[in-house]
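ENTRY TYPE: paired fold submission
RECORD: A
CONTENT: sequence, then structure tokens
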Amino acid sequence: MKTVKILSMALLMSVFCVGMTFAQQQQPTRRSQQKEQTVATTKPAKATKATKATAEERASKQVAAMKKSLNLSNDQVNKLQNVQTQYIKDQDQARTSKKGNQQDWKAKKDAYDSQVKSILTPAQYQQWQAQHPSKKSPAKPGQAPHHPSGKKVQNDPKK
């Protein structure tokens, strides 16, 4: 009789444990489904890939900023739009090909700079150059070179 009680108690405990395990496995699944449903209804779908603005759109944005800062006329804006669009296309092409040599790119930058100079008045051109640190002249011989952060780099005599 004692063994029957022990066996029935063990059987009861195993059924209880199996039932608890099954209940715990089922519960997270229901919760995760509920979370997925609420997230799907509250958040809009994300775009699969961010689209890059076209060269014309980027040029328009840059020329609009130049118009505001340099007080450009409509004729200047139209001319600059074409020059800026071509320059951006050249930049994109140079980035994707990665074959362009430095002298080639320097020639394109110089051509762009001369085109902009021919469109702007001398005062506007000076103001435009001042707004672009990359347009400033390089360090003269005897001057300490500039670090990209804008700080002067001191030549170390120990080296």
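RECORD: B
CONTENT: sequence, then structure tokens
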Amino acid sequence: MVCRVEVDIRATAETIWELLTNAEGFPNWNSTVTKIEGQIREGERLKIHVPGTRQTFKPVVSGLVPGQRMIWSSGINPIFKGVRTFLLRPSGDTLTEFVMEERFSGVVFALTRKLLPDFRPIFEAYATDLARKSQRLEAVIRSPVGASHPRDPNAQA
């Protein structure tokens, strides 16, 4: 099974990347995550807490290319495997295409697939939250006052 969302965000890839790689700041902008433990760096294992469940997800970060791509994967083939890929594709000075795709596979996944929720609304909320926060930050950065201040992904924009 594959779940994918694509959205054009009126912000630079740098602004979006800062949000996507700041684990501590995730709950400030992302309604689908209540907490991330760990650092979003190559080879790191994260502990992701989501609303409405006590279950945590523990992906490993890999394939990290700053400002362009990263992968979060968990599970063991052929039992269960989830691989989430994040892509940023700049298009002009302040427009970036954001793509998030997750591929699920494995025997356990095949047996429990019908019990899983529809991931599409969750992915859409994630992308909408990211776009909203990125665009707010970008507006602050590009304003005459914001232009003199360093980027702060935790700023209340």
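NOTES ON RECORD B: The chain is about 25% helix and 30% strand. Helices lie at 13-20, 26-29, 107-112, 120-142.
STATUS: closed
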